[in-house]
Write a structure and sequence with these properties.
There is one protein chain. This protein is of the alpha/beta class and about 160 residues long. The chain has one domain: Glutaredoxin. Helix content is about 30%, strand content about 30%. Helix 1 packs parallel to helix 4. The N and C termini lie far apart (about 30 Å).
């Protein structure tokens, strides 16, 4: 089922890059950027993560928690965080439960080959736990700025 702006964001519990569990419901009272990305340490995903990293002080100033989610495992996330000095949490959805809950697991194409994978999609969640904005087909290089602009309008 496709999620819509204004509806309650589905709760979940996933481990971060250190194996510590995080639940979305624990974030009530904060803005949350949940960004789904295909794979650790690949060109587009690295650009997106580093752009968010470079703008991270602005997210903090706007009291926004950032969580990156992919189907990579905890160990892969740990290496990615350390390699690029990422100051936010990456969550491991290696069982593909949350990507399916958020309807971001779907058909993709690369060099003429079709396969299933994580669609680059983000959800901005308000302090009450409702989806304020959905970003589909995210451009990794400008996404952080786009979200910050929207956060300023919402606040």
């Amino acid at each position: 089922m496709k999620l819509k702006e204004g509806q309650q964001a589905p709760d979940f519990s996933l481990p971060d890059q250190e194996g510590k569990l995080h639940m979305l419901s624990e974030q009530k009272g904060n803005w949350v950027l949940l960004y789904f990305y295909p794979k650790d340490d690949t060109p587009g995903c690295t650009k997106e993560a580093c752009s968010i990293r470079d703008h991270f002080p602005k997210f903090k100033k706007l009291k926004t928690k950032v969580f990156g989610i992919s189907t990579d495992d905890v160990k892969s996330h740990d290496k990615f965080v350390k390699k690029f000095d990422l100051p936010f949490i990456l969550l491991a959805d290696d069982k593909k439960e949350v990507v399916q809950k958020y309807n971001v697991w779907g058909k993709k194409q690369f060099m003429g080959r079709e396969y299933l994978g994580t669609l680059r999609t983000s959800f901005l969640i308000d302090p009450k736990g409702k989806i304020a904005k959905i970003y589909e087909k995210v451009n990794p290089e400008v996404h952080a700025e786009e979200v910050l602009k929207d956060l300023k309008e919402f606040n």
